[in-house]
Amino acid sequence: MDPMRSTEATADRIPPHPDVAAVPLQAVLEALVDPVRRSIVTQLADATTDIRCGDFDLPVSKSTATHHFRILREAGLIRQHYAGTSRMNTLRRTEFDTAFPGLLTALVDADRTQPTPVSAHQESPTAG
Amino acid sequence: MDPMRSTEATADRIPPHPDVAAVPLQAVLEALVDPVRRSIVTQLADATTDIRCGDFDLPVSKSTATHHFRILREAGLIRQHYAGTSRMNTLRRTEFDTAFPGLLTALVDADRTQPTPVSAHQESPTAG
DNA sequence: GTCGAAGCTTGACGGTCATCGTACTTCCGG
DNA sequence: CCGGAAGTACGATGACCGTCAAGCTTCGAC
Q1: Of these four, A34, A62, B85, B127, which has the most CB atoms within 10 Å of its CB?
Q2: How far apart are CA B27 and CA A35, in angstroms?
Q3: CB A26 to CB B116 under 8 A?
Q4: Phi/psi zone of residue B9: left (φ > 0), alpha (ψ -120 to 50 degrees), beta?
């Protein structure tokens, strides 16, 4: 009800974001090995602005998408904040590049060259 | 029995190595997400010469190690050749860097900064 | 030829994770 | 206040993958 709430004042409902420097490399790789999550990251990397959860092009249900966003947030890859009922997502590029130099660039670059096929109901597109 | 067999003539027993350019990014990430396999890669990156399979410092049984070497070979990350009964392993750095620029460097670099804890009988060191 | 060393193959097992549906919460517009 | 929209939380389920032991193959030494 405050007139103060534009885009930044409603952040209470979001669990705390980790310090990227404290995230283990293992967690980062586990986050990025999933094609759906990697698709989220590349869509963010290609965008110039934040993206709503619901505006991503994803082949999974809403609850599964929520799960993926959480993994990415906990891996320090994305930052989330509320705007109304919409959760906005940003890539934490600068911070991440400090902690893992070159990693995100190399991955997004590779994903652009070889777009990862993200089809639903398939956990291991390589083996399948 | 040929006198010709120094180190390169015995390569028959090794399945063919893939063309790195044809390896999907997904396969590369699935290979590198495992801490044991990442440990193999970093040990190779730190070495100046080839390493025998048995000379790696790995917390798993021989059969499991064989499995990991195969995954890495099929992901285009290592090259294997026989020398007697020993299988030698080399990092395919140059080829890999051409196909996935910056990826290997960023990963090895990150792994050096944050050495991955590879303990036996543990598939998900992050969650555990 | 025989033996040991090095490593592969196979089969089985157990844990982890991606997936979903359902129910719940929070916010905005009338 | 009420309804819809946007997401989350919670269980349940099924598949994949890392793990190992046992047995086999290949090579080198003697």
Answers
A1: A34
A2: 11
A3: yes
A4: alpha
A25, A26, A126: residue with CB nearest B27: A126
Domain B20-112, classified CATH 1.10.10.10, yes or no: yes
pLDDT of residue A119: 66
Residues 6+ apart with CB under 8 A from A96: A20, A76, A77, A103, A104
Contact list in A for residue B97 (CB cut-off 8 A) is none
CATH number of the domain located at residue range(s) A24-111 in this protein: 1.10.10.10
A111 Cβ under 8 Å from any chain B Cβ: yes
pLDDT digit string (tens) for B90-108?
A: 999 999 999 999 999 999 9
Which of B26, B28, B109, B119 to mutate to test binding with chain A, by most A CBs within 10 Å of its CB?
A: B26
Q: Does B26 touch chain A (CB under 8 A)?
A: yes
Q: pLDDT by residue (tens digit) across A93-125? A: 999 999 999 999 999 999 998 877 776 544 434
